[in-house]
Design a protein that fits this description.
Blueprint lengths: L2 H23 L8 H18 L2 H4 L5 H24 L35 H24 L7
Helix pairs in contact: 1-2, 2-5, 4-5
Length: 152
């Protein structure tokens, strides 16, 4: 691609990443969540893959790294879901919610400022889903783009 496209991609990439993480982290307070934020992060990867040649961009966006992210997100989601069973509760039980620890504050009744430290296990699951989605979508994008032949 042209220098203008590459420069624009380089400038936009960090902002897209920040926005994707914002959507993931605030998923339990606002519309959005892990899947939507992960899709935004994957679109940032796609921007890099399209702005640079496949061989250049795969130096930074590696398939093994994305597979590791996908597996890590899935593992984190499963461990989070099973963690309640280790404490004697049911599968997916939200044991962090009323404790006052990480994501354990109680939601105030009525209109108030959003508190990120609420919702118990839900923000952790949003993060796990976001990691899994960015990994899986990037692996799919890398597989699709690897078959394209460039004109020299």
């Amino acid at each position: 691609m042209s220098r203008i496209v590459r420069t624009t991609a380089d400038l936009a990439f960090p902002f897209i990443l920040v926005y994707g993480f914002y959507i993931i982290i605030h998923g339990h307070l606002t519309p959005g969540g892990g899947f939507q934020g992960g899709a935004i992060l994957a679109s940032a990867m796609l921007l890099l893959l399209l702005a640079y040649r496949y061989q250049e961009s795969t130096r930074y966006v590696r398939k093994t790294m994305m597979k590791t992210l996908e597996s890590g997100g899935l593992l984190l989601f499963g461990i989070t879901a099973l963690s309640a069973m280790a404490l004697g509760a049911g599968y997916f039980y939200n044991w962090l919610s009323p404790r006052g620890l990480l994501f354990g504050d109680i939601v105030e009744v009525g209109s108030s400022f959003a508190n990120l430290n609420t919702a118990g296990l839900i923000p952790i699951m949003n993060l796990a889903v976001g990691i899994e989605v960015v990994g899986a979508a990037s692996v799919i994008l890398l597989a699709l783009l690897s078959g394209i032949k460039e004109k020299i």
